[in-house]
Amino acid sequence: MTDFDPTSFRAMSVDRYDVADGVFRAHYTLRGKDSGDVSFTEVVDFGAALGERRPDDRLLRLLALTCSPSYFKAAAPPVVEIAFPTRDFERHYLSELVAGGLGEFAYRNSLPDALTPTVTGPDADAVDPTPDAWDADAEPLVPVGGGKDSVVSIEALKGHGFHPTLFSVNKFDPIDRCIEISGLDSLRVTRRIDPALIEANARGAHNGHVPVTAINSVIGLIVADANGLGPVVLSNERSSNVGNVTWLGRDVNHQWSKSISYETLLRDTLSQYGFNPDRYFSLLRPLSESEIADRFKNSSQYFRDFISCNRPFAIDSGRRGATWCGHCPKCLFVYALMAPRLGRAEVEAIFGHDLFGDLDNRPGFEDIVGLGVHKPFECVGEYYEAAESLVSVLDDEDWRGVPLVEEFRSRRDELEKVAVDEQSGVIGVDYVPARYAAALDLP
Known about the structure:
Blueprint: E1 9-20, E2 23-32, E3 38-45, H1 57-67, H2 69-72, E4 79-82, H3 88-101, H4 103-109, E5 118-120, E6 141-143, H5 148-158, E7 165-169, H6 173-182, E8 186-192, H7 195-202, H8 212-226, E9 232-234, E10 245-247, E11 250-252, H9 260-273, E12 280-282, H10 289-296, H11 329-342, H12 344-351, H13 362-368, H14 383-394, H15 403-409, H16 412-418, H17 434-437
Parallel strand pairs: 1-4, 4-5, 6-7, 7-8, 9-12
Antiparallel strand pairs: 1-2, 2-3, 3-8, 10-11
Helix pairs in contact: 1-8, 3-9, 5-10, 11-12, 11-13, 11-14, 14-15, 14-16
EC number: 5.1.1.23
Protein name: UDP-N-acetyl-alpha-D-muramoyl-L-alanyl-L-glutamate epimerase
Enzyme class: isomerase
């Protein structure tokens, strides 16, 4: 097996895309400086989710661009060449997607230049868009991730007369169980990363986090459009706007493709294509993780089935776990958040054991409450939210004597300094239309 040398490539080409029999393929090539090109194909099998309709070519083109960072990062060359005609705003979209969506990848691999490739390609003719005939009043499409956030969106919409169709990418048991509990119809799409990329990673290609939510969002837009549905309603919260570290003057955010920055970028891109931007928004954007937890505690029917841990969602099915791992940042954050809201007996039943009783979790809890190194590179909320919850646990007699609870009791003053929402009262940006905002029952 020959080594993969990322420095031997001069550019990545976004070659072409096509769709046939409900299967979308996007083709990419890493161009060697002298020879030795390496090609990849991303496959998205829409199956029955498209019906008999061919997707709008603008959205297919957008999907080809949105999937490209997965292959670009293997070598992170200085140039991205789009082989088919695009307009300035599409090239701008890809530039911003790389700069924001690969921030963590670049930081972890010490590749600052990976965030600023030159994006080139032939210009498409400017065409005046036709009015968007989309029906904003049609029922929404709601992506389901298997965690508490999408459950809160689902139940809020159901409680206010909406009948959403649920949507998922690939088959995962926690997602399927949440969909079943909801009682709603659903559509599933299968996405396959080229195995050649996984082989390249094993031979020395760069690897790291990519903006998966961006990819799933565009897939969702295609599915909603093909089925005559209303908006794609995400469940991304206010807390996802907060980054992990500042690096070389950049805010590096693991959740960038869940943030208001990406939501704005995608909506602006849809507008420039001629689509109504309200085809895409996040219902939970006005809420913090704490506020979402306050709502989720009322959905007990999901308590034994929702999972926010990454282990059950591993790409390699052989590495998937059946339940919470009990050690990763997502497990620790959700445990801390739900502990004062559900009580000790309930959270232990959900997770299988007491995470505060495991001293190996000390560094992880320190990180999520702002007393460690930095906010973990995971989908977790803000420091103040975890610290605030932990302070509440300290006041609960049921937790007295638990090892980590007692350790943090001695650091209560530190926790209370962190447990302050500095943005309290600040109204952030959101794009939730009025009829959907009513489903949140905000004061």
